[in-house]
Fold each of these.
Amino acid sequence: MLEGFKKFIFRGNVIDLAVGVIIGSAFGAIVNSLVADILTPLIGMIFGTPDFSGLKLGALNVGKFINAVVSFLMVGFALYFFVVTPMNKLQEISRKKEPEVTPASPPEEIILLREIRDALKR
């Protein structure tokens, strides 16, 4: 039973997943800081207030919901323009640098064997 657990834990996928979760968590902190410390104050300078939590509609606290939606959109904006777009550009550049692989002609022995095969079929 412990042997099976050991195989499971040291399997490559589990380690990759663990590393991905940890890196994702650290990266989430970076994106949250970008939104909270840079984009939100920028919106506050442009529109006057970056916080809508004071807005209420009767007993409903609509402002917190608006804050959550705006925060979600800012995180999406930050991820797209500061991560996805540059990564796509880098991948595009790396694809251009890779030479196209043209299939090499088969060795003479293969050509000869194909001719013999075709002659036997006839």
Note: Helices lie at 2-9, 12-47, 62-97, 108-121.
Amino acid sequence: MIPTKRAHRLVAVLAVPALLLTAACGNGDSGNGDSGDGDGATASWPVATVTGDMGEEPEVTVEEDAERAEETRVDVLVQGDGPEVSDGDFLRTGLLVRSPDAEQEDLVNTWRPMVADPEGGEEQEDSGPVYAALRVNVDDLLPPAATEPLIGVNEGSRVVVQGSAVELIGDIATQLGFEEGDSVVFVYDVVTVIDAQGRVEGEQAPVEEGMPEVEAEGTEPAEITIPEGEDPPQELRSQVLIEGDGPEVEAGTQLIAQYTGAAWSDGEVFDSSWSRDAAAKFGIGVGQVIQGWDEVLVGSNVGDRVLLVIPPDKGYGASEGHDLQEETLVFVVDILDAV
């Protein structure tokens, strides 16, 4: 569980802009510690001992006289056999972060998620585990130094990273109450590796009458051709061009997706994740994106390619002064995962 104010501060601080998440010190050296190729392996040095099966909440114990880490230590407790994690990949992962210098409290524990009390009172523990969606070696949910040791690890692995809090968390460690010489322990269950430059796979269906044509392949933005002489539809329209077989997208999840957006009036691309060399990650169904996306993408499936035509009132119509305020928008969205 996350019982303390420090844990709440970690969530709050890690939500600030990426500029504040830059690690103060570079990457640490990896240790050669105990590695396992099955469930129930153990890592111990010199701060924490971690035990437990992949997929179950890890047990982390710290002896009172344990030495504090001076170098970053990386242990693969359970060796997976899936794809390797590459620099910049997205991960679906179980995550536990503990400060052994503060009564062994958990700063983050996705095996014991917290939810708001509907009565408006204190938070209550939820009934089941969740996963974190994070990007490796990039300012994201965690600072780069905390995830860089996962590069080269295989999907399906349980990994323990422990070391200096200042080095792994960065300058914000002091905001969280850490002092020089304090340690921090991360336990990752790497459930899914998502290629940040990937596309969904499958045969694309012909577009419906009156919908833009779409060509999407490689690592370039999709080519969107507006039907000649057609007025834009007045209502929100969408079509699944490639049907995925993954889980249904639920409101409140973090969507990891590639997308290209073009204006109906001239067909010009105004935004694309491909221009940033990585998929985008955002909350869906919670008002973080335009209304048309929330309405269509909730209920889609992971692996879908979705074509959306969005009228101004469900696009940027409410954003006064926006360049696209009066524009009908066309998007092609590849849903890579929903965490």
Note: The helical segments are 5-13, 144-147, 165-169, 291-297.
Amino acid sequence: MAAHRSRSRFAADRGLTTRMVTTMFFIGLLYVVFVGVLVALLSNAWPFILVIAGGLFIAQFWFSDRIVEYSMGARVVTPEEAPELHGAVDRVCALADMAKPRVAIANSDVPNAFATGRNERTALVCATTGLLRRLEPEELEGVLAHELSHVAHRDVAVMTIASFLGVLAGLITRATLWGSVGRAGRNGNAALLMILIPVISAAVYAVSFLLTRLLSRYRELSADRAAALLTGRPSALASALTKVTGDMARIPTQDLRKAEPYNAFWFAPAFSSRESLARLLSSHPSLEKRLEQLGRISAELARP
């Protein structure tokens, strides 16, 4: 097996790179401002705030892939346990000239797939049992190419870190409230802090949420495009998208609710309600927009 490669045959996307850098810059700036405001408001607790913020951020960066794998029920499988899945991953990796990631299966009837990992060396690609039952080999390869393009473009790591900063705002807020409001009460500032800190935290979460959603929608279109160009079969990816999205309506609501919190990582979003507000703020572009792009790519590839 070849060592880590810095480049692959997946089509480069400068638009995606620009958006990732911009998103991380603004979210990082937001994070610094948030911690700075907390330090100013809770001056006596600044060591506590910095230790929690730094510790959680480092832990998230190093263990985010493991957290996602565990949360989504991924189980690493050998080629003997899942020969068809491993074979499909092998073919895509050969096409892309990239190192093979760990291969996993999640025992869920929700037809989906995801990839995670800070880089190619720590990468994992996972398909659910529901996806493996429903897709033809060419469709499965299209989905896996989509997921592996996330790894090649490094947007998996960016999305994981970016989405965590909003969560971190809430965690720090709870810790500082419980640890410092009592001391502030002696100075008569408890009531003010009880108002300001949740408001600031909510604002940080809202801005980080919107920034990550904008990046997420673009990166899904970018992954569709990269996968279609790599495999040369945009119609197979379009067929997989149509099957997966159509079959979501047949999945029990209970299963969809379990999958819904991880929509940012899935190949296609899982919604437990047709009228869910999550559809309006989805991490993915609409099915129509994705199919329209694949149709254009198919037409381009068909030209002499």
Note: The beta strands are 74-76, 102-106, 113-116, 124-128.
Amino acid sequence: MSTDYKQMIFLNIPVSDIARSRAFYAGLGFTFDERFCDEGGACVVISDTITLMILTHEKFAGFSPRPVSSPAESAQHLICLSSESRAAVDALLDKALASGGTDTGKTIEMGDYMYGRSFSDPDGHVFEIMWMDVDRAMAAWAPEAASA
């Protein structure tokens, strides 16, 4: 394996309206790789190693070995994106709400080392946004901290 190789993640999700979903994800500040966009889907670039493929239900069904379910009715997945700070978590949630997303109302707060919130996109897919100070988390989770 080349030392230049970066493993990537391609998340594929079914959406009911490509144009609406494109507008939503653009509102979050994400870009698109137009080489992989057509009437059946769009390639949302989250980072240089994370790509979200938003696909029509028909196109998604062509890839999936299982029936397409409604993300508004059942959990299909939880997509968690890391953020650089607590403020960045809140800022992305604000962008999601301004772009047509919904606040799930779920906030996770663990001491001074972890903070997270979540939103649903217009189709109901849940995205978690999480900030964590790993050093503080490790200190809090250390065996000696548990016995204190």
Note: Strands lie at 9-15, 31-32, 41-45, 50-56, 79-82, 102-110, 114-120, 126-132.
